[in-house]
Amino acid sequence: MAQALNCLAEEFPTEQHDIAEGVRHVANMYERCRAYRNYYVHGISAVTRYGIFIDAEDFEKDTPLHEAMREGPYGTIHNRSGKNKFKFGMDHVDTEQLVRFNNTLGDLGDYTENLNLTVGHYFRRFDYKKTAPLPQPLQLPSALEKRVWSHPKMKPLPALRLLDPAILQGLADEDAADKRALEGEG
Questions:
Q1: pLDDT at 160 (0 to 100)
Q2: How far apart are CA 31 and CA 108, in angstroms?
Q3: What pLDDT, on a 0 to 100 scale, did the predictor assign at position 22?
Q4: In degrees rounded to 5, what are phi and psi of residue 154?
Q5: Is the pTM of this model over 0.70?
Q6: What is the mean pLDDT of each run of 10 residues along the chain (186 residues)?
Q7: First and final CA of the chain: distance in angstroms?
Q8: Would you say 181 and 174 are in contact if contact means Cβ atoms under 8 Å apart?
Q9: Most buried of 3, 73, 155, 186 (most Cβ within 10 A)?
């Protein structure tokens, strides 16, 4: 869609650069909104009452999970990097974020309708600047930033290996060694 819009923008003569810029703006808005849409539609796997918000500092301090929780409701998003198995993401999306995104899509629809009217008047050889002036460009949504966690304390293990008592003991020994090192005993 964005490629088609950018191709269309290139077809306008230089005298109508304002229309071309409007069409390019729709393409840019579409690309930004597509990233959010995919993140929300393909990412939200559950709705929960509480959201967990942890950063690297919380890992270093071994912050208890209940201190990192906030009351929701939240849509829960879990993802893991395909490039690096040590990075995974967990995000919580609140209703305010979804409403804001929905409003952005509504504004984009209105902008596109008005731009379509302007383009139609241009192709009918009307004085589009008087009969259907270009709408004001919308503010681009910020680029989507997926929360990704990576920390040495996170060690990916196959689920079946977790059932092995020797591995569980080894993990407990590693955690104890990490704790001693953090406390300065190791």
A1: 52
A2: 12
A3: 93
A4: -90, 115
A5: no
A6: 90 88 95 93 84 74 78 78 63 88 96 94 89 92 78 55 65 80 70
A7: 58
A8: no
A9: 73
Strand partners, 94: 74
Task: Please compute, for residue 92, the number of CA atoms within 13 A of its CA located in the half-sphere on the CB side.
Answer: 16
> In terms of Cα–Cα distance, which of 150, 184, 179 is closest to 61?
179
d(CA 29, CA 101): 12
Residues in the chain: 186
Residue 86 to residues 30, 35, 83, 111, 135: CA-CA distances in angstroms?
Answer: 32, 23, 9, 42, 46
CA quadruple 114, 117, 118, 122: dihedral, nearest 10: 170
How confident is the model at residue 88, as a pLDDT?
Answer: 66
CB distance 2 to 24 below 8 Å: no
